[in-house]
Amino acid sequence: MYSGTNIILVTNNESMIGLLSSELVQLRNIDSILIRNYQNTLETVESEKPQAIIINCQNSMEEPFCLDLIKKIKEISSIPIILLVESYNPTFIKVANKIGISDVLSIQYGNSEILMRTIWSLQKNELRQQHKKYEKLLTQLNAFDDKTGFYTPKYSDRVFQNEIDYLRNKGIDGVFVALEPNKNSRLQPSIDNMIDTIKSNTRATDTVAQTKSKDTFYLLLENTNLEGAMVVWNRINKAVGADEAICAVVCPVENRDYDEIEQILKEGLELAKTSPNFLHIVQSSQKKNDNWLDNNTQTSQANPKDFKLFRQIFHKKVEKIVKPAIEELIEEYKDVLFNTETPFVETDDSFSVKFVNKRQESEFKLTQKSNSIEVEAIHNGLDSPENKNYTIGLSDITTREIQNEFEDFILDFKTCL
């Protein structure tokens, strides 16, 4: 449960004060609601250290002041911010989301949903504070570097072995990626650039450590196969901005322990220095279903009329990769999808997920077209850039690729509410 503390309601509308404070006071006896306007909020944030802030934006005239306030709050605190709007402006909401709001909802939702969203924000903030406490302890033990957000060499072997044991017990795929600047290239990135690039291209569930040499990084990508790891590598390589800037090794976990993997990564980085694209890939020692599907896709491209095989591969990809990846993200974003139905719809040649509530209907759809897949993200009533339509190869369907695309779809749906 969340701990009792203050909630700040920011509004210049006196009628809104009575409407919201009467509902929010039902949270708990030890919770208190502080009413502030746009001008005196920052001082209260610094002095009271609340656990949640609700900012009411009444109209377009207030939007610039609201964005400025959100930005200033995020500069001094990581407190969750709920944006409460009275009219829908997708551009304004997208900018607010980019700055760092935790949630957005309309005043038309009703008091009960506002109350529920506030409770969720309080719970999330308590979990965040608990995480920070453990992070601080790990930093004090020199197991975690709070500046980089990566594990240190002192305990990285224990951390990685523990993660490997977890993946194995859960039956989850995992792949290691080792990265270091290419010292033979004049285009090699700085260490700070490497750190920023890795952080922006890995997920919270991935584990990253910096080695004793300080310029080599080990990444353990959870719930990812070899092909998914290649997607991550390509994005990092592209973000650095030069094809010859980084040497890399990609190695599936499979039945290996960390001592064996570490040795493979060290040897692989040496091999990568003379490999094409400065990349060394440790091939899977196991015959996995995902690879079987991809190999069949590649070998069958010479016969584009073999629709039956492509259809079979598509449905296996949906069952093994697409559905689990989407279900995981729906659970992760359940607060955004509150009061939203999320049915799965399957036909002979397509798979889709629909988001349906009283205010918005959206659909994420994959349609098989021979050996390629048409991907559609459709938000009713909106034009691009929210709506998307593009094609990927059947063999390009990986857990990480689906999660990246579907997470973008969820965030776009959030701005439509």
Brief digest:
The protein is 45% helix and 22% strand. With 417 residues, it is of the alpha/beta class.
**Which fold name corresponds to the CATH topology of the largest domain?**
Alpha-Beta Plaits
Q: Detail the poorly predicted runs.
A: 287-305
First and last CA, distance: 28 Å
Residues in helices, as a percent range: 40-55%
Kindly report the spatial arrangement of strands forming the biggest sheet.
Answer: 2-1-3-4-5
- Specify the CATH homologous superfamily of the largest domain: Reverse transcriptase/Diguanylate cyclase domain
Mean pLDDT score: 82
Element-level helix/strand string:
EHEHEHEHEHEEHEHEEHEHEHHEEEEEH
User: How many E strands?
Assistant: 17
Number of domains: 3
Main sheet specs: 5 strands, parallel
Our Rg estimate from Cα atoms comes to 24 Å
Q: Count the helices. How many?
A: 12
- Please state the overall shape, judged from the principal axes of the Cα atoms: globular
CATH classification class of the largest domain: Alpha Beta
State which percent range the strand residues make up.
Answer: 15-25%
Query: What is the CATH-assigned architecture of the largest domain?
Result: 2-Layer Sandwich
